[in-house]
Amino acid sequence: MADLPTRQDLFQVGRRAIATTPNIRISAKTVDVPGSDINLITNIAALIGEALIMQLGRGMRDLFQETARADALDRVGYDRTQLTRFSATPAVVPLYLSRPLPGGATPGVYPAGSRITGSSGVEFATDTDAVFGNFTTSVGVNATCLQTGSLGNVGIGGVTIFTDAPFDNTLTVINASVLGIPEVAAGGTEDEDDISYRGRLRAFFPTIRRGVIGAIQYAALQVPGVAVATPFEVIDLNSLPVAVIQLMVADTYGNSNAALVLAVTNELLEYRAGGIPVIVIGGSLEVPSPLIEWHGMSFDSGIDTVRASEQVRSATVACAQFLAPGEILYRSSLIAVARTVPGVIVSDMCLTVPVGDIVPTTNYKILRVQPGDVSFT
Q1: What is the span of the domain harbouring residue 154?
Q2: Of 175, 190, 211, which residue is a domain's last?
Q3: Does residue 102 have a cis bond before it (omega within 30 degrees)?
Q4: I want to staple 171 with a disulfide (CB 3.0 to 4.6 A). Which of 6, 166, 226, 317 is the partner?
């Protein structure tokens, strides 16, 4: 809206109108006298005009996907693509219910909707009945967090307390797959922000064609809780595609589990080519080792050094926020993003750790940096 007339521009328009009107009894010089009647009237008219122009500018801004914000972006996005913004989603987790002795054990059902509490105090409700026969030792079910947001993303071994008592007091529960493999709770996210929503809107039209790689990735990102999706064509020794695609997915925090993978697999039925399998693999979080350390940064005079250091910390975390599985966190990227913080002087030597680029240990690992992983000396 910088190109729209300002209050000063409108005041000058009024002044010129008075100065160029023939046979008028008001001197143009009087308009410039603060507090004169004509000065007040011209200023009031300019103020009203500025308010109207600002409203016009906001209306024009809200017409375009790249400039609209908040509710206006919702309206533009839905009008163009019928896509709506994701609300906060609850985490999902696979649970492994087991008991020690099958012989003569009591049959029974741990019903759907039963509550199980995680270590952080959040509760999960089972999605389906867990049915035990006389000789059943273990059953796997999925559960959904009763609260939305990232607080439901409980770590391995963190969902172990029966809030609603089971029919058999020898039963134990842990967040693990049906095979007993430990799993994290994943997929809990906050309300989708403008940047993420705008990114999905941009990807809509190029991926209208189904079956292409871009559409496969786009489909995964339509599943609530999925923030990272990276598809690969499987090729043979001659570098020819063998009609199979691998798709690695994870949430914002770089985690995934069997429940999230299943949701993506189901979503792909509307997007993948018929007869071409897409093997969905959950990515897993990897924390940089060693952690990131800044040393000897300088600051411009008058800068709040504590606040500026925290901004560098936030910028460091953001640098790795959307890395794909197997993607490298470059040392040069960390230095470049730190230099964007106003008032901070960052040389190449200020980043003492790492001394080189951070490479994930496998293509399934997703690098993420948490605020506690960044230190200053």
Answers
A1: 90-175
A2: 175
A3: no
A4: 166
